[in-house]
């Protein structure tokens, strides 16, 4: 067991020296060596740099060599669109989507899913549908595709391009099913995979005062106000001659971020790859703390849907263009993340939507899990709201309880406050109920959120706002309700956990 003691001691000396050097370097503000790839440069400030990847080009080694070297996020260019994933109704096909996904994962990259509900690139059978039939087909499509990729993706573009340039809704067959189709899509998506961030994606929403931008902003504000789940906005950022980088681009990003959503540039390409526009769009993202990353829509100019305009960062021969240099320099100049970095956010973010799904327990025990030992059941004799609660019986330890795994992505930084509210009732007795978060990072941390004595004659609310901190990379979050010293049977209902 102690065979490696000497090696360990040497290693510790090395670590001590490295820590000392890093400390001196930080005290003297010695710049860190600039990263030499787009992905590594973006990662220094906690962001990603991605590209669209086409399954048909994965056999092109010049293409895959650049993509594997430069990027750390992948968006399948066409392979997860509705016509690709459900070519015949209720017959799903993930062959091409999986090929891109597997290529990305095998190269250490994350994946943005694109896209679930869109007026374009619908399969033929869907194009001819309308009304309730289409609405149900959309819901079934979201459920079918998201089930396949459940827990695997970083983001999903749930809805794509739903607005006209004048800010009205696009007159699509989906819009024809009712104005609530977008929120139904997002609610369906949240229930299908609570672990993935859900985005609205559109083009020509880069200018803060443009009617379409304002309309999307108003929709997100409305969703936030009413608790419709939405986590992010994708600005496609296709800059053409008639639609180039607006001077208020950073304001646009800040306006969206102020609503409590992540923002991302999702499909960037620029006519003739203008260096000033590429520098400006990158800098705007770096200046907004919730701008989480940039994706260019293709690797080389020859891979672009606008290839005649040479809009990307690599030429057709795979050479880095001047725009590449302006982008990587802006990425490298962004303040690094870490304990010494100054938070760029100055305003308090808007409250997030509820991290918990089936929070009213009206869908039985769906998404609720046992922490430790016990049995969950959907109870119709006791409920705080609706007609159901979730009950746990058979606990053998005080820490056993009713829990739900929460997406790590809901906790972007350590030290933020979360607010909890959950209603609890005992079957007998008056135990003290405790709402707790178990955080899995470099060590496991338990954060007691709220506690109260509960009883069998009524419902008691546990509520509080508390900071949540951990060290290292957060890999798991479990919310659960236990009792302090006993194995009581308890009911919970109407749970809410949000930032
Ligand atoms: Ca209920």
Attribute tags:
28% helix; five-stranded antiparallel sheet; 499 residues; eight-stranded parallel β-barrel; alpha/beta; disordered N terminus; single chain; binds calcium ion; globular; 19 strands
Distance between the termini: 45 Å
Number of strands: 19
Helical segment tally? 12
Q: Taking Cα atoms only, what radius of gyration do you get, to the nearest Å?
A: 25 Å
| Chain-averaged pLDDT | 91
Unreliable segments of 5+ consecutive residues:
1-12, 340-348
Task: Provide a short characterization of the protein structure.
This protein is of the alpha/beta class and 499 residues long. The chain is 28% helix and 25% strand.
Question: What is the topological layout?
Answer:
Elements lengths: L4 H23 L10 H6 L4 E6 L7 H10 L2 E4 L5 H4 L9 H12 L3 E9 L5 H4 L3 H18 L6 E6 L20 H12 L4 E6 L8 H16 L5 E4 L2 E2 L9 H9 L4 E9 L4 H12 L4 E6 L25 H12 L35 E3 L3 E5 L9 E5 L7 E6 L9 E11 L5 E9 L3 E10 L6 E9 L7 E8 L6 E9 L1
Parallel strand pairs: 1-2, 1-9, 2-3, 3-4, 4-5, 5-6, 6-8, 7-8, 8-9
Antiparallel strand pairs: 10-13, 11-12, 12-19, 13-18, 14-17, 14-19, 15-16, 15-18
The structure holds calcium ion.
């Amino acid at each position: 067991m102690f065979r490696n003691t000497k090696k360990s001691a040497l290693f510790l000396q090395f670590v001590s020296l490295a820590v000392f050097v890093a400390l001196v370097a930080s005290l003297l503000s010695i710049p860190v060596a600039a990263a030499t790839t787009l992905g590594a440069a973006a990662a220094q400030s906690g962001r990603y740099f991605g590209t669209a990847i086409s399954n048909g080009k994965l056999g092109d080694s010049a293409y895959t060599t650049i993509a594997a070297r430069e990027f750390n996020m992948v968006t399948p260019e066409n392979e997860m669109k509705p016509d690709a994933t459900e070519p015949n109704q209720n017959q799903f096909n993930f062959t091409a989507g999986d090929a891109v996904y597997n290529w990305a994962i095998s190269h250490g990259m994350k994946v943005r899913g694109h896209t679930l509900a869109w007026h374009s690139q619908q399969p033929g059978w869907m194009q001819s549908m309308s009304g309730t039939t289409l609405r149900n087909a959309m819901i079934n499509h979201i459920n079918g595709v998201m089930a396949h990729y459940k827990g695997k993706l970083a983001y999903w573009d749930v809805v794509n391009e739903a607005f006209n340039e004048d800010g009205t809704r696009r007159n699509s067959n989906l819009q024809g099913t009712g104005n609530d189709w977008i929120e139904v899509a997002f609610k369906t998506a949240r229930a299908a995979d609570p672990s993935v961030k859900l985005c609205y994606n559109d083009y020509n929403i880069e200018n803060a005062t443009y009617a379409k931008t304002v309309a999307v902003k108003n929709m997100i504000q409305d969703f936030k106000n009413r608790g419709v789940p939405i986590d992010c906005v994708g600005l496609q950022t296709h800059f053409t001659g008639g639609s180039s980088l607006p001077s208020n681009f950073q304001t646009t990003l800040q306006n969206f971020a102020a609503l409590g959503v992540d923002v991302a540039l999702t499909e960037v390409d620029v006519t003739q790859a203008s260096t000033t526009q590429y520098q400006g769009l990158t800098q705007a993202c770096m200046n907004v703390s919730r701008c989480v990353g940039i994706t260019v829509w293709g690797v080389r100019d020859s891979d672009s849907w606008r290839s005649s305009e040479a809009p990307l960062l690599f030429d057709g021969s795979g050479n880095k263009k001047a725009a590449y240099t302006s982008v990587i320099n802006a990425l490298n100049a962004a303040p690094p993340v870490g304990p010494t970095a100054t938070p760029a956010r100055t305003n308090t973010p808007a409250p997030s939507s509820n991290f918990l799904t089936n929070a009213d327990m009206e869908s039985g025990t769906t998404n609720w899990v046992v922490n430790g030992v016990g049995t969950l059941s959907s109870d119709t004799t006791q409920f705080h709201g609706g007609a159901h609660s979730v009950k746990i019986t058979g606990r053998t330890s005080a820490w056993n309880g009713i829990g739900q795994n929460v997406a790590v992505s809901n906790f972007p930084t350590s030290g933020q406050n979360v607010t909890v509210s959950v209603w609890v009732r005992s079957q007998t007795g008056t135990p003290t109920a405790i709402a707790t978060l178990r955080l899995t990072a470099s060590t496991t941390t338990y954060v007691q959120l709220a506690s109260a004595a509960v009883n069998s004659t009524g419902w008691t609310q546990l509520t509080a706002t508390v900071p949540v901190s951990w060290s290292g990379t957060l890999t798991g979050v479990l919310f659960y309700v236990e009792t302090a010293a006993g194995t009581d049977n308890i009911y919970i209902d109407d749970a809410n956990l949000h930032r």
